[in-house]
Amino acid sequence: MAKVVLVGSPNVGKSVIFNYLTGKYVAVSNYPGTTVDISRGYSKINGKAYEFIDTPGMYSLIPITEEERVSRMLLCQEKPDIVLHVIDAKNIRRMLHLTLQLIDMGFPVVLVVNLIDEAKKNGIFFKLECLSDILGIPVIATIATKGLGLGKIKEEVQQYSPGKIRFSLLYSPNIEQAIHSISAKIKGEYGLSRRMTALLLIQGDKILYALANHKERAFPEVLAEVNKLNSYYQYDMEYILAVERQRAIDRICDSVLEERKIYSRGVGETLSRLTREPVTGIPILCLVIFFGIYQFVGKFGAGFLVEYLDLNLFVPYINPLMEYYVYQYIPWDWLQSLIMGKYGFFTLGFRYAFIIILPIVSTFFFMFAILEDSGYLPRLAMLMDFIFKKIGLNGRAVIPFALGLGCGTMAVMVTRTLETRRERTLATFLLSLTIPCSAQLGVILALLSDSFLSLTIWGCYILLIFGIVGRLSGSLLPGNSSSFYMEIPPLRLPMLSNVLHKAFIRMWWYFIEILPIFIITSIVLWIGDRTGVLTYIIYSMQPVMSSLSLPIETAQPFLLGFFRRDYGAAGLYEMVTSHSLSKEQLLIASVTLTLFVPCIAQVAVMIKERGVFISIIMLCSIIFLAFMGGLLLSKILPILNLYL
Amino acid sequence: MAHLIPIVRCKKNTMVHVVRLLLTSGDHLRKLTALGVLPGVKIEILQTYPAYVLKIGYTQIALDYEIAKNIIVAP
Ligand SMILES: Nc1nc2c(ncn2[C@@H]2O[C@H](COP(=O)(O)OP(=O)(O)OP(=O)(O)O)[C@@H](O)[C@H]2O)c(=O)[nH]1
Ligand SMILES: [Mg+2]
């Protein structure tokens, strides 16, 4: 099967095109670093089967962040039959660097010039046949979101035959000479052309160094060549080569571009300025949090929808119906209790999942998709940069943290967009400790929203812990923090179809995640209940609960919280509806559960991304910190003597 | 010959062009080249606080002081 790989800079529309070509859906959002892992899709064009691969965006072949590394590794391992290089038309001068490098790598490249609509708006027009002639590769103009030109990509893929003449970029004579003598010395196979192998070695590419060091017998001689070349220049070779490439690219662009300076400062630019200047940006952020999260997710999703479904659907219809059938047709007491009992998977699993968690998660993902597609997040990132610097991270971490408010599992994956291991570890830890996921957040907002003071205390307390723990672990963890750089894409009007599709896919994914867990949880608890182990555990948790000044029944939500934090929160919801918690106790329990261990899915991703050892240390610290946090609050609250 | 200054000394809303980049760690240089900050490129300074927002070609990029100070420009 022919393999077609989509590569390119971040945020240029690769995933939109991938979705079109394969009929699948991978997330599309308006910020760099949406895709952090590889997706594969299969489809037939005129009866012939193709495999398409979507990759995380990369700025250059030599990776800065983890997800760029994923793409680079893929390119060298897959031996693609066609590489579709997707570029942003308006930034063609920056984008062609990768095209030229891909050609130098010996790949069969097809250039997809996307976002033609935005280029036009900026007054840039192209003579693409001309570009195609110069580069000797097919060039296709597209507007992916409107579906324009995408059919052409299919045609091109189908009729593509490699072996046309290629553009070859010649660097300065002494560089060319070094390339020549290094490539003569290389014997190993690295999934790229000899020329590119030499070029990457010259630029000190770490991935290739590690490989070549093993494989090449003549590696010391190669190194000697590299060092000799380096000694001619003051700057890193990567920079020297980029400058030389830019000269060649500018020459090409001068003959294929027509730039009519259109100086338009539309509504978009004004809005963009308002969101990124602190004076207006911070009030806008507060509005987003108040309306988007508090009103829409907390009040509407977790408050109104949950209550509505519960009181108008579950209590009067679904529950009696189930009860009727279960008690009528199932003779065995054990099966009855497995389904309908206190820990039965209907009472516990179904109700929590469908009536409490589903409405909250879907409202959150809907709201969040609008934010993502508008391009607000990168602006938030730059606004928050200086605050995140204080805890040893930088503005780039804003995006995983914001995602973490939706689902921590997704967020831990997205920490790949951070540069250093230290930052990724720190972000993973803080995500697991302090960031509640949407389901948990929604329930807590709804429960605490009766008392504004409680809600404020909860929010400030969690922020305080975020700050203190971040600061402390930031100074304990070895390694450097890195400087902040980020491309700020134009604000775009979110398309309803994409917003709904993305929200739905995420919700579904979330569901598939929790489905087996809720069944397992209720079975485990049911067994525990039947054998008496559960009573024993709850009994033995009594000292912990009473030290937090909580009633013994709170042990149950905490046990649920071990399986999933959001279940724990849903358990609290149950206790509040039966009026078995005072306002103070609710606040303490909410704080402790927010800080408590993340769900099993998130732990699995943590282990995958950070390793078992680090994950265990993190989990132990989280349990410790969660209880300490709760304990401290339970001691402070009586002293303050507040009327909640 | 116009005098050269680091971009962090320029005021908001000015137009400058990049003359050279300072010799710093490879990381900074790599990020700047990745974002298209190379000699000869025109830059409009849109914002300087809390981070630098620069308009290069047809996009905007945000940089913190640590990176931005390596860009040497002339008006
Ligand atoms: N106006 C316009 N917007 C587009 C076009 N193609 C893509 N977009 C938008 O560009 C943004 C980025 O699209 P994605 O497909 O997520 O980009 P990507 O290249 O996969 O990005 P990463 O996964 O971050 O590397 C989305 O907001 C799209 O709606 C286009 O042709 N015109
Ligand atoms: Mg993508």
Automatic annotation (TrEMBL), chain A:
Mg(2+) 2 binds at N19, G23. Its main location: membrane. GO terms for cellular component: plasma membrane. It is found in: Cell membrane. Keywords: Cell membrane, GTP-binding, Ion transport, Iron, Iron transport, Magnesium, Membrane, Metal-binding, Nucleotide-binding, Transmembrane, Transmembrane helix, Transport. Residues 1-163 form the FeoB-type G domain. The keyword Metal-binding applies. The keyword tRNA processing does not apply. The chain crosses the membrane at residues 282-306, 352-371, 391-414, 426-449, 455-477, 507-527, 586-607, 613-633. InterPro entries: Fe2_transport_prot-B (IPR003373), Fe2_transport_prot_B_C (IPR011640), FeoB_Cyto (IPR041069), FeoB_GTPase (IPR050860), G_FEOB_dom (IPR030389), Gate_dom (IPR011642), GTP-bd (IPR006073), P-loop_NTPase (IPR027417). Mg(2+) 1 binds at T22. Pfam families: FeoB_C (PF07664), FeoB_Cyto (PF17910), FeoB_N (PF02421), Gate (PF07670). It comes from the Bacteria. One of its GO terms (molecular function) is GTP binding. Probable transporter of a GTP-driven Fe(2+) uptake system. Belongs to the TRAFAC class TrmE-Era-EngA-EngB-Septin-like GTPase superfamily. FeoB GTPase (TC 9.A.8) family. This is Ferrous iron transport protein B.
From TrEMBL, chain B:
The keyword Isomerase does not apply. InterPro entries: Fe-transptr_FeoA-like (IPR007167), FeoA_core_dom (IPR038157), Transcriptional_repressor_C (IPR008988). The keyword Transcription regulation does not apply. Keywords: Iron. GO terms for molecular function: transition metal ion binding. SMART domains: FeoA. It holds the Pfam family FeoA. Residues 5-75 form the Ferrous iron transporter FeoA-like domain. It comes from the Bacteria. This is FeoA family protein. It comes from Pelosinus fermentans JBW45.
